[in-house]
Each structure stands twice: as structure tokens, then as C-alpha cells.
Amino acid sequence: MFLGEDLLGWLLLALGAAMVVGNGLAIMRPPTTKNDTDLRKAPMLRSLIYICLGLIASVAALGTLILK
């Protein structure tokens, strides 16, 4: 198979981890330079929901990669 048999698991792990890290950093460090259209800080509830979804996706992907 092209790019390996576990490609979907690795992609899900990468997407979940990116959601956790990206939204976590958006909450902890808001941007210093702002345009007129930028928010002052990241929306807290939406960011926490995305962090939880990314964590669930990462754990599920790790489970499929480890238990295979």
C-alpha cells in the first residue's frame, strides 16, 4: 500500500495532536500584534471543545497504532 498500511491512523494522530496543541497555545498565548478583524483572545468554549475532540482523536489513533 502506498505510504504504509497505517496511514489513516498516523493522519488521525497528527490531526488530533495539532488540534490539541494549536488550540492550547491559542488560549495560553494570544497574538501580540492585532489587526482590526482579529479577536482579543481565542473563544474559550470553542477552544476547549476542540482540545477535547483532538484529545479523543489522538487517543483513538494511538490505540489503533499500538494494538495493531
What are the SSEs and their pairings?
Layout: H1 7-28, H2 44-66
Radius of gyration: 15 Å
Beta percentage is under 5%
Largest sheet: none
Low-pLDDT sequence parts: none
Tally of alpha and pi helices: 2
Give the tally of structural domains.
Answer: 1
Fraction in helix: 55-70%
Average residue pLDDT: 91
Per DSSP E runs of 2 or more residues, the count of β-strands stands at 0
Q: Can you walk through the features of this model?
A:
The protein starts with 6 loop residues before the first helix and ends with a helix. 66% of the residues lie in helices and 0% in strands. Helix 1 runs antiparallel to helix 2 (44-66). The mean pLDDT is 91. The chain is an all-alpha fold. The protein has 2 helices and no strands. It has one domain.
